[in-house]
């Protein structure tokens, strides 16, 4: 292979790599980060994770499930996962999918009993969260990705320096303490710190339901911004930001494959789902606080709908 071809290949891999960094950031759409490491073509199949325990199922290259976790640890080792998602991609259908699991969903955590599902992260990290999702919903997961808030802010500002356009509701402007930033009512473009606050807000009448909707809204718009990054000029900055903020064990070769499909315009629009599904649960309160408890047969219903969603 000539030096010129090698150089072009390295540039391609870097471009795919940055896309997938932001793609996973978009998937989590407001979660915690910990760190994608920089890679090149010569290391295309190396494992990217550090020493995080994660005993995922054998990879099905035709239908990959990635557990995406986001938490605002604020330096605490026992932080709960603020956002829990399953990102799915089929190389056959070219269809990206996303399941958002509401953090107050009341489930059995293996070895610990019933609790809010987000407690699994603080009790046993990504591996216990994987076990919890698999045992409750029957979903096989091969990989994980963890993301930190500060990295999300920086990546949004780098990818969309002019901001992302959203409509801020009156409820947000009257609850500045919950947001942590000052927003004004109406349609406007928000920067990284502001869009993060917008996406995480849950203190209106819709609570966590509204937050999930806003996360999916921002996710879609961020993907559009990513698609507009067509030159190499931003790559060094994006790689530098991502390093130290996103941690994953997704193979580089798999990232490259998915990135190739997206950048060539071969993928379909993203499909989304929320757990619990409507009509399958009710509000309840236990010693762990307010929870979303499944109705009789509700857990089985959610497991079946989730599996159908991912495999159809």
Describe the model.
The protein is an alpha+beta fold and 312 residues long. It has helices at 3-28, 119-137, 149-159, 170-173, 176-179, 192-200, 207-227, 235-242, 252-263, 298-311; strands at residues 64-70, 83-90, 95-101, 106-109, 113-116, 143-147, 164-168, 186-190, 246-248, 271-275, 281-286, 289-294. The strands form 4 sheets. The protein has a 6-stranded mixed sheet with strand order 9-6-1-2-3-10, sandwiched between helices. Strand 4 and strand 5 (113-116) form a beta hairpin. The model is unreliable at 9-20 and 26-49 (pLDDT under 50).
Summarize the entry for a quick read.
The chain has helices at 3-28, 119-137, 149-159, 170-173, 176-179, 192-200, 207-227, 235-242, 252-263, 298-311, and strands at residues 64-70, 83-90, 95-101, 106-109, 113-116, 143-147, 164-168, 186-190, 246-248, 271-275, 281-286, 289-294. With 312 residues, it is α+β, with helices and mostly antiparallel strands.
């Amino acid at each position: 292979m000539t030096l010129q071809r090698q150089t072009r290949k390295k540039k391609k891999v870097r471009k795919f790599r940055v896309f997938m960094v932001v793609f996973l950031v978009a998937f989590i759409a407001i979660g915690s980060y910990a760190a994608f490491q920089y890679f090149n073509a010569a290391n295309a199949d190396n494992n990217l994770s550090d020493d995080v325990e994660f005993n995922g199922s054998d990879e099905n290259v035709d239908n990959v499930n990635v557990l995406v976790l986001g938490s605002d640890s604020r330096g605490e080792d026992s932080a709960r996962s603020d956002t829990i998602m399953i990102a799915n991609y089929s190389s056959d259908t070219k269809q990206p999918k996303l399941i958002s699991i509401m953090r107050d969903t009341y489930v059995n955590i293996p070895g610990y009993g019933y609790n809010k599902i987000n407690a699994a992260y603080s009790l046993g990290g990504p591996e216990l969260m994987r076990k919890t999702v698999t045992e409750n919903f029957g979903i096989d997961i091969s990989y994980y990705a963890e993301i930190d808030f500060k990295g999300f802010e920086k990546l949004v500002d780098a990818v969309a320096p002019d901001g992302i356009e959203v409509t801020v509701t009156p409820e947000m402007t009257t609850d500045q303490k919950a947001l942590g930033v000052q927003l004004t009512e109406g349609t406007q473009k928000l920067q990284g710190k502001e869009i993060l606050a917008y996406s995480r807000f849950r203190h209106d009448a819709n609570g966590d339901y509204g937050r999930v909707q806003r996360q999916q809204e921002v996710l879609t718009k961020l993907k559009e911004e990513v698609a507009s990054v067509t030159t190499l000029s931003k790559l060094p900055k994006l790689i530098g930001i991502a390093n130290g903020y996103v941690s994953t064990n997704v193979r580089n070769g798999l990232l490259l494959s998915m990135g190739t499909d997206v950048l060539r315009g071969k993928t379909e629009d993203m499909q989304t789902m929320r757990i619990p599904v409507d009509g399958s649960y009710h509000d309840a309160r236990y010693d762990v606080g307010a929870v979303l408890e499944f109705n009789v047969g509700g857990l089985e219903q959610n497991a079946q709908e989730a599996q159908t969603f991912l495999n159809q």
